[in-house]
Design goal:
about 600 residues, 11-stranded mixed β-sheet, alpha+beta, 32 strands, about 25% helix
Length: about 600
Amino acid sequence: MSGYIGSKNASLDHEPGGKPVIHQRDIIFLGGLMSRLICLYCRGNNLRKIGRAIAGYTRVQLYLCTTCGRLLTEGEVIKRPTCPKCQKPMKINNFGRRNRLTDFTIQFKCSRCGYSKTLGSYENIRRERSPRCPRCGSKNMTKKGNGVYECKKCGLKTGLPVINRMSKYIKEPDVKYVKLIKANPDELPRELREAIKTLDEHWIRKALKYTGPLPCPYCGNPAGYKGWKGPLRRYKCESCGREFTVKTYIRLAEKEKRPPCPNCGSNEHVIKDGKDYKGVQKYFCKKCGRYFRETTAYDTHGQYWEAAVEYVSEGISVKRLCREKRISPNKLLKSVEELARRADGVVYNERRKPGILIIDDSKVYINGRQDYFWEFLDYKSRLKTYADASRGRGWRDVARGIITYAANFDLKAVFSDGLTANARALYHLYAPKVVFVHWNRMPSKDFPLKTEHSLIIIDDFGDFAVVSLGRGRKLPLGRFKCRTNLDLAELILRFSDDLAVIVVNTKRNLSKIAELLLDDNSGGDYVYHFICGKGYLKALVERAIRDVKRRVSWFDGRFSSLENSRCFFKVNAFYYNMFHHHETFGMQAI
């Protein structure tokens, strides 16, 4: 222990049995009696200060119990509270029974006025950790078993998570292909199924010769009867009463594959409008009245996309790039906007583990005003899963990026700095199934949860760790073995609970601890939010942010509008994921 806890003010020898020997010179030097402090092990109040020890980057006070000869840290000392009525130090009345959070609860009682107070009360912890009711907003939600919470005030019963308030903020893809054939493709014959899939003339000719039973393409009802009018076999649906043939399937399949309108982004109201003199098919949208061709449809790769990617990747100004490429500035900016809309709906098929998201933001000037842009980076694949700009740094701006990540990956942990908006976003999205782990830092004043009684502090001294409850380490929870990263990960997992707030003071590697904690779903259903101070796993996202800021600074670093800046950052993320050479992997990300 001397290798991790040491002080130039104290020297302890040990007998052959292992019991420390206290010298008279130490007692003379150590000074006054700490009558308000009680030893956890012998419950004596003969404690004296004996210097400080280092837990991570935090200096923790050490005490020496002259009764049992133990060397204690601040987290192993019971602190006697003061009576709020008569201002007299209270005495221990009894040790309460064990519960699932703390090793015990301690009840104090004032010998003068009879006022009693309990440290480690589960009722106080439950009240602070209770999620807000989505109906009345009160913090009176109690567990009813099987993942069900009930509000004591309004009686609302709800599952977990309590509510997903941010689903309406995620932007859906702009391109919409209408679904006209309601019948199940697996119930169709092979020749008709291939015909509507490929629209190939070979399969269409085979499909037109089919005379067997068919489900209704309009309602999907398999029941119907056949007629024999005309050269083709005709059918009539018994459910909706509409008539159809094999050609009906071909006609609806051709409508489904028409290109979407450049204005509204849908092909529901698009009809053919002949061909031009070059033989290119023309279309007309009956909804917005827009005429367009196959080459100018919404889902085609415009001819300016290459210039748009070069604009965001090389940091060349619009005027210079348009002069070199001999293109119009308006068309270049429109192509950037179009590419940004398409990049916003990119879905990554490969789901890598462990599902760790790193969040960071930085300043950007938009029309002379200081605003912010966001970078959301996946730890394992190094992909920018979301990038955007915003007027402020609210929790809704963070929640958009978290929902986008959760739609493509299995979110298990989030790394961020001390910005309160990050914690608020996770609270609104995943409460109460979220655990906040402050890495080498204490919760800020504007933290969304109260932590006076429910804060769990883990002080890692190398060979062992001391766990205590409360902001001032008021109630000790014990000393635990902590020699390896796995021991610390298991210790964090042991004290994980609904809306738990844990402070870890250590110098161990955060990424290794997180991977061990989340490996093989050992973290359960919880989403861990690592709010990091010193030792923050931030180098990856900071490197990406520096690269973006350098490219922005090459053309004066200012944007005329918020929409232009949002398009720039989204296309830059598209370039970073699709074309950027990642030195960590030695290859491109995709």
